Each structure stands twice: as C-alpha cells, then as structure tokens.
Amino acid sequence: MSVKRVLSDGSIYRKTILSNGLRVVTEKIPSVRSISLGVWVDVGARNESASENGVTHMIEHMLFKGTKKRTAQQIASEIENLGGSLNAFTSRENTCYLARVMYEHLDTAVDVLADLSQNATLTPANLAKEKKVICEEIKESLENPSDHVYDLFAKAYWGNHPLGQPILGSIKTVSGMPRTRLVSYMKRNYKNRSVVIAASGAVSHEKLVRLAKEKFDFADGTAESGLAAKRSKDRTISLNPDGINQTHICIGFPGVKYADNERTPALAIATYLGGGMSSVLFQKIREEKGLAYSVYTYHDSYRDAGIFGAYLATDAKGAPAAVSIIVQECAKLKKKKLTKEKLDQIRAQLIGNLTLGMESTSARMNRLARQELILGDYRSLDDTIKEIEKLKATGILNLANHLFDLSNVAVAVKGPAQKKALEHALQN
C-alpha cells in the first residue's frame, strides 16, 4: 500500500507498507539538504515486567556495542566521519534508533541502522561493561533531583503499573540482567509490524523504500501489548526527603490520550498555566512571590492515557504556598472561561511553538513516526494549526472541570517537606 499527500508548505508526505508489514513514512522538505532518519520499534518501558525493568533501555545501549560486521567504533565513526550523527532513545512506549546525515549519505545511514538493529552480537563481555555504564547513568539520575523527581512522580501516579517503573531500570535489575533476557525480549518485540522507518528532510521516498526492502526484515508479527493504563490509587502523596536542601515537587492529574479530541485544549491549559515566563504560574509563583526559580506545566499523552503535570523547585517553607497557588489557579479554570484576548494569546503561542519546532527535521521525523505508531495516520502541521484555531473557551472550561479533580491528584516530593502542610495546600 502506498499513500501520497502534497502539503501546503511544499513538503510531501508518503507512506508505504512493505509486504512483511514494516512501514516506511517520509516527509520530503524541499528547502533542506539533510535527512533525519529513525528506526522506531513500538516497545518501551511500559512493556516490561518488574523483573525485566530496564531491559528496553539496555537493549538500546547494547545495539551500539558491535554487530557481526562492525565494532562499536565502526558503528559510530561510519556516520560521524560523514559529518552526521547517530543516537537512540527509549521512552515509556517506544524505542528509536536515529541518524542525521546529508541527503547523499542515506544509503550509509540505512545500512548502519539496519545492521545495529538486527545483527547486534550482545556479547557477554560488552554486556558486563554496559551494565556498569547504565548503573552510572542511574546514579547520575538519582543524584539530580530535578530529574529523579519525575521517576518518583511516575511511581506515585501509576503505582505498580509498568508505567510507574523508571525507564532506566534500577541498579538491582540492571546488574542482574542476564543476556538471555535481552535476547528473549527482542525476539518477542522486535517484529516487522511493530517497526516504522521514518525520515524527514531531503529524502527520496522511493529510494528509502527500496533500501528498507533490501536491509530490513525482522521477525514476522507484532510486539507484545503492554498492560492497559490503570492507576492502583486515585490520590497519592509521596515524600522522599533524601537529605537534600531544596524541595522538588511534581503534582499531576489524569490527562487525555494522544488521539483524544481534547488533547489540543489540554495543551492550551498547560500553556496558559505554565508554558513560559508569561504564564500564570511563573508570574505568580516566581515573579510575584519569589518562591521558585523553575516552575512549569506540561501534558504527556500515551496511546491510552495522559498526565497533566506541574513541576517546581522551592524550599521547604515555600512548598505549601507554591502548591496552594497551583491548586487555586487550576480551580479558577474550572469556574470561569478565559477571555477572548487570553485565548487569542494561547492560540498564537501554541501555533508559534509548533511551527518553530517543526523547522527541525528531527522534530518532524519524531512527530511523523509517533503519529504512525499511535494513530496509523498522518496529521500535517496545517491540520494541527486548524485544530488550534478552533479552540474555544468553553472547551477549555469543560476540560478543566474534567481534569482538575483533587480526589485524583498525585504529588511526588524530593527533598524536605511536611505532609500535613502539603495536604492543607491541596484543599480547594
């Protein structure tokens, strides 16, 4: 099957499904000379059992440590010697292996990514070394409170569900991970129908399809499905003193899933409350009260769930007041519609942020692949802008009333805090 769409900005979207089920999606951008290329596997940390926690991320590391025909040095240098870059990341839902190269080096990029994703040797010696590397990565995260608090929040929000597990795993699970577990996990999840080859930039779709047919052929079938998103508790406050002086706080509510029609209003709420220096929470918590240096809100969407969250860092005395301001501003959104002027500002901010972000071929490739994995479809920049332009104050009011239910709130704190004071601050 092949699909083609010419977009208003001159870019061309195309999609082809190969006979083995692997999907190739591209967005050709006439004004650039580079290509961002990604091999996306529809498996992430949420697919792991408790004993497997960290295996997805460990596989991501290990695939760069050598294949049947390339050493780790050769994998890195073959792209970098051409002026390109090679990288990978693991999220809660996906794994991506990506390269950025000049358009004339597409063949090399495909060959390297195909080799490492299908022919990695996963030798015991390399595994032993990489376990040490990942354990150091975990220690670095644990000692960075503005990073670690997100893992604490995921645990507070999701409990024992796999979405509550750290993507990196723990030192215990990583240190004890046998090679057989990596091999088994890849066999179960690196499947043709769960792989998307995505590219954005100066890419020839026909050429990429030809190269994909030649170079990629995982096992037949699809990856194992993760557990449906479900919280074990509705309201949670997790305190983690950890002997540090500053108090880092994540507070969140149930959000909306990626394909939900209310995702745009959810992003609008996040923009209004904490999307930059002009946002309500930044102005009230930092500029007016001087309670925090960093404060912002965000909305994360998964295929079957979402989280609306706020983060700030303050001292123990200021924490209750800062949390109280967050709760009050959320409550205000439930009672009164935003003015036309404010709504126009939010629309302009969302459209501007999106458009500027899409000037990066890497960002466009990421968006292209994630849409294919979750929606099985493509929404252009123009399509999204039209959705933003349709934003209504009533829709934001209704969603705020749906989201901001304090019986569903989750709070994670890293650093000194008094639970009673926080409980009081959470009263509306």
Description of the structure:
The protein is globular. It is of the alpha+beta class and 428 residues long. It has helices spanning 55-62, 72-80, 106-119, 124-142, 145-158, 171-175, 179-189, 205-215, 263-274, 280-288, 319-335, 340-357, 361-375, 381-389, 393-403, 419-425; strands at residues 2-6, 12-17, 23-28, 34-41, 85-90, 95-102, 195-201, 236-240, 247-254, 295-301, 306-314, 410-414. The mean pLDDT is 95. A hairpin with a 4-residue loop joins strand 10 and strand 11. It has two domains: 2-215, Cytochrome Bc1 Complex, Chain A, domain 1 (2-Layer Sandwich); 236-425, Metalloenzyme, LuxS/M16 peptidase-like (Cytochrome Bc1 Complex, Chain A, domain 1, 2-Layer Sandwich), CATH 3.30.830. Helix content is 44%, strand content 19%.
Radius of gyration: 23 Å
CATH superfamily descriptor of the largest domain: Metalloenzyme, LuxS/M16 peptidase-like
State the shape.
Answer: globular
Q: Provide the structure class.
A: alpha+beta
Q: Would you state the CATH class of the largest domain?
A: Alpha Beta
* Strand adjacency order, main sheet: 1-2-3-7-4-6-5
Q: Give the mean pLDDT.
A: 95
Low-confidence stretches: none
Q: What is the succession of H and E elements?
A: EEEEHHEEHHHHHEHEEHHEEHHHHHEH
User: What is the rounded distance between the termini?
Assistant: 54 Å
How many strand elements?
A: 12
Number of H/I helices: 16
The proportion of residues forming helix, as a percent range, comes to 40-55%
**How many discrete domains?**
2
Please state the second-level CATH architecture of the largest domain: 2-Layer Sandwich
- At CATH level 3, the topology of the largest domain is Cytochrome Bc1 Complex, Chain A, domain 1
Query: Which sheet architecture does the biggest sheet show?
Result: 7 strands, mixed
Strand content: 15-25%
